[in-house]
Amino acid sequence: MHARFRAPSRRLLSTWILLLAGAQLADVITTGVDMAYGGVEANSFVAGLLALGGLGLVFGTKLLLVAAMAIACILLKRYAEAHPTLQSRAAHAFGWRAIQISVVGVLLVAVQNPALLAAMG
What global pTM score does this model have? Predict the structure, then answer.
């Protein structure tokens, strides 16, 4: 017996995309606070962005990535609904889970930033 794949509703997908954007914002804010108190960015890519354009460039880059993930997930959802093959459903499920995992991962980083600051002080 195969479980029937049900794509998440637009509302649920939108909620997770907004959660991802919020998690990215929390990460940028906590990074800024850490740096204001003498912390150093450990991620070399983000450190390079900070050197080039500060927190604004980091936030803009993160928002572009969120938008790219949102567009990809929306396109995969539409394709999976129009062409309900196993491959299209698997691709959509992968994108959907990637957003959920990203939210959890970025929130963990955002929570770790103040914890590192507390350990320094």
Answer: 0.84
Q: What tokens were used for 46? A: 């983000």
Distance CA 80, CA 115 (A): 41
In 3D space, the residue among 107, 97, 113, 95 whose CA is nearest the CA of residue 25 turns out to be 107
Residue-wise pLDDT for 33-58, tens only, equals 988 888 888 889 999 999 999 999 99
Cβ atoms of residues 8 and 95 within 8 Å: no
- Residue 26 to residue 29: CA distance in whole angstroms: 5
And the tokens for 9?
A: 């509703």
- Asked if 34 and 117 touch (Cβ cutoff 8 Å), the reply is yes
Paired tokens of 12:
């649920």
CA distances, 30 to each of 12, 48, 117 (Å): 27, 17, 9
Domain limits of the chain?
10-120
